[in-house]
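Good morning,

Attaching, inline, the backbone tokens for the sequence recovery test we're adding to the shared suite. The designed sequence is right after.
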């Protein structure tokens, strides 16, 4: 009988703990052998909460450990590229949270190490694994709406992160809209040629003082002619607003917000519904499970992850192009960022 895949998880923060819980209790054929966090108490707490036998402060000990077959990188973004390179050197397959880095040279070095080592790499663009976004994708593939003409993505958080986070996040285009850039490429199955960004500070002046914006729209032109928009806000007072729509020659396909309470109350003056799910941990929880299942299948057998190096790189190019477009007040071709 084939034994379980043993993984090591680097970073025991919000997303690290979620993946550990799924790996330990919701997925079959896998066990978490070790966890690390530079803040050792966090690693120890995750180990004790989720019955992980080994806990380290130094992530290299996890990467190089003989009991670890594959590495799940959930530490802060500025550590991802180095940990991918170290994992490649150790011959371990990698699941890495988005993004690999905010700098293209760093991403390229990490991807080169992956290629040379021949390891498998999956990137945590989880929204592709959301059941309803995936149904939109399936309808597009089946031709239900014929040739797509317009893509619209609305993606708004319930409330802004702490200012300390904003300062090191890379800004709204690289931190938040990066997921939507991935969704745009996933649905249209083509690359964006050029984009134009407009944005402002409308939610919290402190975000502006930290050098970022909190409200942004990007319009995109794909190489195949499809045009699209993404709009982001750091604060939707009614909850996590996640909607996708593709309009085309034979109709339209869209995926709407989910509500934890699906009851509708209708009275003489109002029809009442509950608010949408509050944030990504609730709204996308199953997508995190399904993406991990795909990674484990790739580690166990001959399949390749569907979200890999190029999918990590292009949204960063798009984010850098959006930053440049906003700064310079003009449309920017992606070739200007990465010829
Ligand atoms: N796919 C998604 O939807 C999604 C959601 C949230 C976060 N993320 C990504 O996951 C990563 C972590 O985000 P988070 O929200 O969990 O942040 P977090 O701050 O809650 O957790 C990060 C953890 O990494 C630890 N850490 C920092 N440097 C380390 C190192 N050198 N070795 C080991 N641990 C180290 C920190 O101490 C912290 O506990 C980020 O890259 C973020 O972009 C992705």
């Amino acid at each position: 009988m084939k034994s379980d895949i043993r993984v090591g998880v680097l970073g025991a923060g919000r997303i690290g703990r979620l993946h550990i819980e799924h790996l330990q209790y919701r997925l079959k054929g896998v066990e978490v052998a070790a966890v690390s966090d530079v803040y050792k108490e966090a690693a120890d707490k995750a180990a004790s909460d989720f019955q992980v036998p080994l806990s380290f402060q130094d992530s290299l000990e996890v990467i190089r450990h003989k009991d670890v077959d594959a590495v799940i990188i959930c530490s802060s973004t500025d550590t991802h590229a180095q940990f991918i390179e170290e994992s490649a050197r150790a011959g371990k397959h990698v699941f890495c949270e988005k993004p690999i880095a905010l700098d293209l040279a760093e991403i390229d070095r990490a991807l080169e190490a992956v290629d040379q080592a021949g390891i498998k790499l999956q990137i945590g663009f989880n929204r592709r694994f959301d059941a309803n976004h995936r149904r939109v994708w399936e309808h597009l593939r089946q031709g239900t709406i014929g040739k797509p003409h317009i893509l619209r993505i609305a993606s708004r958080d319930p409330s802004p992160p702490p200012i300390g986070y904003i300062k090191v996040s890379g800004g709204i285009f690289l931190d938040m809209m990066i997921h939507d850039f991935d969704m745009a490429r996933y649905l249209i199955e083509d690359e964006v040629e050029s984009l134009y960004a407009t944005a402002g500070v409308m939610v919290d002046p402190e975000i502006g003082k930290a050098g970022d914006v909190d409200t942004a729209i990007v319009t995109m032109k794909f190489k195949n002619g499809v045009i699209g928009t993404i709009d982001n806000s750091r604060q939707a007072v009614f909850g996590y607003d996640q909607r996708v729509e593709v309009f085309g020659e034979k109709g339209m396909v869209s995926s709407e917000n989910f509500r934890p309470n699906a009851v509708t109350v209708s009275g003489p003056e109002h029809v009442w519904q509950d608010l949408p799910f509050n944030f990504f941990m609730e709204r996308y929880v199953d997508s995190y499970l399904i993406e991990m299942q795909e990674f484990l299948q790739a580690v166990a057998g001959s399949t390749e992850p569907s979200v890999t190096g190029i999918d990590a790189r292009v949204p960063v190019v798009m984010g850098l192009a959006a930053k440049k477009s906003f700064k310079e007040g003009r449309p920017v071709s992606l070739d200007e960022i990465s010829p």
